[in-house]
Each structure stands twice: as structure tokens, then as C-alpha cells.
Amino acid sequence: MAEKVLKPITRALMRFTIKGTSPLITHAWSEKAKLQMREKHAGKKTKNREIRDAKAEMEAATYRTADGSYGVPGLALKAAIINAAHKDLGIEKTLVRKSLFLRTDDPNKVIPLVMAEEPTMREDMVRVGMNQTDMRYRPQWDNWSIDVEFEVDAELLQPEDVLTLVNRAGFGVGICEWRPEKGGEFGRFSVDTTRPVEVE
Question: How is the chain split into domains, by residue range?
């Protein structure tokens, strides 16, 4: 019997810049919040309300790369791109999920923000639990962009497909807090057409 020869996967690398078209608000889970949740699940009584440090809470809500740079969660970007796919567009979500992969050296898959300014602090009243309100302090960037690199199964997705999906994700899905997918207007983006798109 003749030995089967497996056809190699045709892979492509794409590099381009994504530019924010509306302000970005992040809200990473702080270590303190994780600890409180663990204690609650363990049945421990929660402590009385502590004096809050707005600046520290804002800092805790940022995503950081391993070298300390501000960033956005790469998995959130891929999720937005997947959610932008639809069979009526000729590109199903399952196809995107298995043929498009974010490449980054960061161990936590955080993509560094490319910007020249520090974030501003937002103070928002939010509803938590049953008819309770609380204040949240989060960072906001009015001008932001990220440089991304994707590994693509070139037999399933063409470069034009990827760019179209990214633009659709940025237009109607968004990333992070108060994004269009959740009824908001923040975290929108598009492919930066003033920067080169590299495919190899």
C-alpha cells in the first residue's frame, strides 16, 4: 500500500495596524477582586467596606504586557473578529476560529498600545447586584492603536477576508468596556489604511 503524503498547510503571516475610532476603556480583573471572589466562594465573610483609592483602582483596571506597557487583551480582539463572521457573509465563525491565530511574544497575550499619552481616569456609576450602585474607576484612551500579527490558514482565509473581518469587528463588535456588542459606543476600531499591510 502506498504511503500517504500529507499536504502541508499553506500559512501566511499578516502584519498591520489597527487604529481606534472611538475611545477605549479597559477593566482588567485586579488581584484584589480575584481574592475577594475566592474568599466569597470559600464561604468567608467579606470585610467591611474599605476606604477606596481611585487612582489605584484605575491602575488595577489596566492590562499590562510583561514589560509593563499598557495593552489590550489579544483574546478579546480575536473574539471580536470571530463574532463579526457570519455564514451569510460567506465566512462562518467556526472557520475563523480554526484558521486565524494571533501571534505575540507576551505570555498573557496582551497587545501593547501604541500611543503617546497617559490614560485619563473615568468615574462611572454602575449597577451591581440587586438594586445597588457603586462607583468604578477605569482608564480611558481617546487616541489608541495596536500593531498586530496574525498567522492565517491561507487556503481558508484570504488576506482581504481578514481585513474585512477586522473592519466589521471594529465597526459593530468592538473590544473592552462599553463596546457596541454590549450596547455601547467605545472600543471601536478599523484597519489603519495609512500604514502598510504586510503579507508573507
Answer: 11-31+52-199
